[in-house]
């Protein structure tokens, strides 16, 4: 049988850094962001009896293994172990955008998508919050990764949402945007690739250390404050709201640059200035920092100027995904 799932990547608008338990277990945390129409696709096919291996896994490399314990991909290995999956599988992963070091939550999107695949194979139907929480468990508790808890939620739920964190509680609040405002946002969002890939956990480790030491509480509380301001702006959709949102993105990026020396560098600073000089309303680096993609808001008429100015770096228009992680094909016999 063949199972295929599709899981969106995400952009975080405001509040990133307050979604780590190291912060929100002692102070309120919140983020606002969106799943985007760029995806990780996972296909899993039951093997027949004539192959000389029990597991084949294709991603940036190809693995052929006889036991689960031989699988080198940590998420695949640990999820198969966690669910005690005994069937033989051929698994393939493809992605719209670079899967490593993108700043778009690709690691958590993969974890959510792979869990969604395994749940389907086992004929189980978790709720979106159950899927999110299981992904958080796999990444933080089983794999001991330095990750927050917003990426899993964006990947599972889809849409544009505010997530609030307090102790062990998570509250999900869909942002109530008009169709006109949503269309404006979709038309103005682009990703600008920095040409730099980085391992997020390395950058985050430094931020977690200063978070634990309460050395950046003031900055994180300001990022938290911007969440409410952003939601109000998106829901009101009044004249000039995109310009205001762009200004807020740039302001949040300037705050984030101060959180750790790992977040930015001269190359990224120069690229940010080039994006703004091209006429963008505003921009911020996605994810933990250090590389990946800038999110920029720009009038579509100015897009050619931006593309020319940052060439040969890629400029990718994006929109909001509304479905979240989805089972798109399941062969039943």
From TrEMBL:
Domain GHMP kinase N-terminal, chain residue ranges per copy: 75-159
Keywords, alphabetical: ATP-binding, Kinase, Nucleotide-binding, Transferase
Listed EC numbers: 2.7.1.168
Coiled-coil portions: none
Residue stretches making up the GHMP kinase C-terminal domain: 243-310
MF (Gene Ontology): ATP binding; fucokinase activity
UniProt keyword Kinase, yes or no: yes
Any one biological process term the GO annotation gives: GDP-L-fucose salvage
Pfam families: GHMP_kinases_C, GHMP_kinases_N
Family: Belongs to the GHMP kinase family.
Protein name: D-glycero-alpha-D-manno-heptose 7-phosphate kinase
